[in-house]
Amino acid sequence: MPQSATTARIAARMDVLPRAPTRRRIQWSGYLYILPAFVIIATFHFIPVFYAIYISLHKGAINKFVFTGFDHYLRALGGEEFWNALITTFMYAGLTMPFTIALGLFFAYLLYQPFVKARGLFRAIFFLPYVVSTVGSSIIWAWIFDPRSGLANWLLRAFGLQPLRWLIEPSGIGELLAKNMGWTIPTWASGPSLALVAISIFSIWQAMGYDIVIFLAGLTNIPSELYEAARIDGASGWTLFRHITVPLLAPTTFFVVVISVIGSLQSFNHIFTMNHAAAQSLGGPLGSTSTLTVYMFDQLYTHANYGYATAIAILLSLIILAFTLFNFRFLGRRVQY
Amino acid sequence: MKKYLALTLLLMLAVFIAACAAPTPAPTKPPAVQPTAAPTAVPAKPTEAPKPTEAPKPTVAPTAAPAKPVEIQFWTSQSQLQDEALKKLAAEFKKQNPNITVVVTYQGSYSDAYKKITAAIAAGSPPDIAIGYPNTIATYIKSDAIVPLDDYMKDPKIGFSDADLKDIFPAFIDKYPLYGNKVYSLAFMRSMEVMVYNADLLKQAGLAKPPETYEDFLKVCAAVSKQPGLPCYEMPGSGAASTFATWVFSRGGDLLSPDFKSVLFDKQAGLDSMNFLNELFTKKYAILQAKSYQDQTDFALGKVPFTFSSTAGLPYYIKAIKDAGNKVTNWGLAPAPRTIKDPVVNVYGPSTAIFKTTPEKQQAAFLWLKFLMSKDANAEWVKTTYYFPARASTKEALADFIKANPLYGNAYEWLKYGRSEPQFTPAWEPIRNAIGNAMVAVANGKATPEQALQDAVKKANDAIAAAK
Amino acid sequence: MAWTTVKRPVTSVDRLKSLTGQTAIYAILTLGALWALFPFAWMVLTSLKGYTEAYAVETFLPTRWLFSNYIDAWNTVGHFPRYFANTLFIALCTVAGVLTTSTLAAYAFARMDFPGRDALFMVLLATMMIPFEVTLIPNFILVRNLKWVDNYAALIIPWIASAFSIFLLRQFFKSIPQELFDAAVIDGCSHLRFLLTIVVPLSRPALITSGLFTFLASWNSLMWAILVTNKPEMRPIQVGMAAFIGEAGTQVQLLLAAVTISVIPVVLLYLVLQRWFIEGIATVGIRG
Prior knowledge:
- The complex is a heterotrimer.
- Chain A has helices at 2-12, 30-56, 71-78, 80-112, 119-131, 134-144, 151-158, 173-181, 194-220, 224-232, 237-266, 269-277, 292-302, 306-335; strands at 58-59, 66-67.
- Chain A has one domain (70-335): MetI-like fold (Orthogonal Bundle).
- Chain A is built from 14 helices and two strands, in the order H-H-E-E-H-H-H-H-H-H-H-H-H-H-H-H.
- In chain A, helix 3 packs across helix 14 (306-335) and helix 9 (194-220) packs across helix 11.
- Chain A is mainly alpha-helical.
- By secondary structure, chain B is α/β, with parallel strands linked by helices.
- In chain B, the strands form three sheets. Chain B has a six-stranded mixed beta sheet with strand order 2-1-3-12-5-4.
- The longest helix of chain B is centred in the first third of the chain and has 20 residues, at 2-21.
- The radius of gyration of chain B is 28 Å and the shape is globular.
- By secondary structure, chain C is mainly α.
- Chain C has two domains: 10-68; 78-248, MetI-like (MetI-like fold).
- The radius of gyration of chain C is 24 Å and the shape is flat.
- Chain C starts with a helix and ends with a helix.
- Classes of the chains: A mainly alpha, B alpha/beta, C mainly alpha.
- At the A-C interface, helix 1, helix 2, helix 4, helix 5 and helix 6 of A face helix 2, helix 5, helix 6, helix 7 and helix 9 of C.
């Protein structure tokens, strides 16, 4: 018992006192711990990357490759399509990531309140969207966004608003809004297409429960003694959140941010299935939902351009890697204690 | 609460201290590498060809039926009822050729199967024979994975006789102009793009029979549009390249030159077709579909007078109309309206190709394909799928079926008007998409018909250049 | 435990305040739950409707509840029990594998010091950044050469290690107070023992979370399964579903019935895990 109290006290002061300098001692057995995971990941997920790099430097049919150097990379960087897809990717990330993370943390924190009785039930419900395969839920959501008989337009009509075309609307939301107001705006201000916004709504719905579960697990890992100790000191509400939850949840938040960046820059499944469920061509309508992964997929399977498609994939990976490194440098440093 | 925690920690500490008290704890009991997972019952069994044999074997067709038992892998995208039908045919085939076992395997949708076959080619383990759209087969040819069938077809022992060749419709023998104009695939099924019409709605516009001209078509649209909420045509949200091809054919035009090297769909017939589409949308006669087969459902509910559909969709129309409570009783199929004298239909669909494996397997695969194209087997297949058979003589075997399905029977007569969209090149898929995109741009008022076509031509030319 | 018992007197104002606060929180949670649930409600309702009715949004409830849709969907997909058994077996093996390999690796990354640790960790993360489609072909070649086609091994082994899970667990292991660790090491306890006796029990929620995500990813994966299996009896549920979706076409009510059927086992399993979740929470003592 004294043991636990001491531990808790030490832990409670953790973010106040400078940490005792850890002894730097090389632990060679660490390699053994990572060995099983590394064998599998190297074999099936890392070494194939070199094959991908090889393909990206070649053109031609699948087993009749011809070396072409950096042509594919130059073509991607010099062409409009790649940059358009990149912009769409960032717009999609901007439309989904902040909302998903904020809502995830918000609901997780509410659920975490000690008095909440049906916590398990709520969490089960929040997480349900993530459990259903994307194929299934995209069918449901394409129904919701159906222009004629969908729930979304039914709701708009109920509020006396004009029905929208949602998943099949290639016009930007800025453009639609301006048209409604009778303004004209330059094309660059037209913003993401309504179709992309609709897909983002679906994606937020699907991923929110995921963030809630991770945040909740993170909150649960915070020793409750810290809160109790702080309460004795008279802290409550916002102060508790600001000074205990936020710093101690930092590793979890960091994890969620990194994974969300990777996930939203790579997002493909939702877009593919939503396009499909709404009878659109891949990346449609009119390419307005064509993110980099969608563009890559299109090049890979519609155009059978293995080399070019793989070059795009590698460029995308470099972009993601850059973001991740950035996260580790600037966010990670503040997180790792 | 507190007690709980304290107790747990205490317990853990006890375990932990006990653990640590042990003399020099063996630090690295090799972490459970033997990963819990693998030990499954099924032994690794090389179901693939025992030898990958990528060496392109000479295509001289051997002359006799196989002496030793052969098993061939037949990969399809036909699920459920069609899968069962193919398996039944394989059993039938086995009776006639006891030495050949055909293993029919459903490999997912056409695009899933395409991915799988592409990977399998790269790994040197393609199937022996597979169903796919000709443009995907063209990419396999490009990878040097497909056997040309000309020699097999000509072979006096196992090939087609002259009578056979006369009997088989030319649209079912696929020549690939980009690859020496050789026959790389054969089709045992084709469908055609037709116009489906609701006769009752036509009557309201004063038309006793389906429109044969585009003027009449628009007349129906004008009449129907007086009732709010009734469109005249619903275009798929991804465009409708096969329908566009039909419209262009019906105006005497073509999409690509016969050698598939230059674009023709921006000529007058193409421009007229795009203008027609533009008119449908600017006059609010047409809407965009927001889900697959929305037009089919709406047709069954009596909400749209026309759809353009593949005849392979016919069973689904029949079922949809029945499920919708037979609201639509008076309906039929017709060729698209036209400006030229004779009607024209776009005949297209999946083909079957044989992969380079061993001479024995290639030959067995050819015998199986030939069986699928034979009169009786072909008739069986048609009855399940409403596809069109490869031979004229199949019609006799289908007499009862045609009597029971007059709609199918009508369409059968138009086979002689058949033309094919340019699907025998890897460029066709991107070109399809480019045309579809152009249609969607016009439908949304984002481009004039001329602009839209110009964009599509640019993309099509890129695809043609890449296909070489 | 005297230090926890100091409390200031509770006034009625406080009680009222906390009561309105609690009501507000419950209201927001309920709203969120409705947002998460309404598509499913619509799915189930649609799956019980007739064909014509399914297309009319005006009737929210089915006029006739057609439970027969479920029988139709079940029969059309066919082989459901076999598909389910395969999927379950594959998913459970994968989860067991991932948890084992990830716990070990995550611990090393979080708590041990060895040369190149951070570089290796970045390499690990980098593997998450290459889209799956790109490594499809080389992986298939490998699996074929290992003669794993039509073998459960192909469906399991490549997925029994996950950079995602390692990253997730590493983050959780990091949040375990360093002092707990220092105390243990001072006592001369080995890393493995510390991991098994302290870290693992403390991280139960994280382990279950990681297992859950692995389970779902395995359950819902389609393309790889098509690629490495030919025999129908080796295939998981998603392949059957994909075939059915292609076939059902316009029959939305059947489609949604099939989707519902495929969802139910996952939901049930999730609800079972739910109990563990709570238990895990109790172990850490958060409900103090």
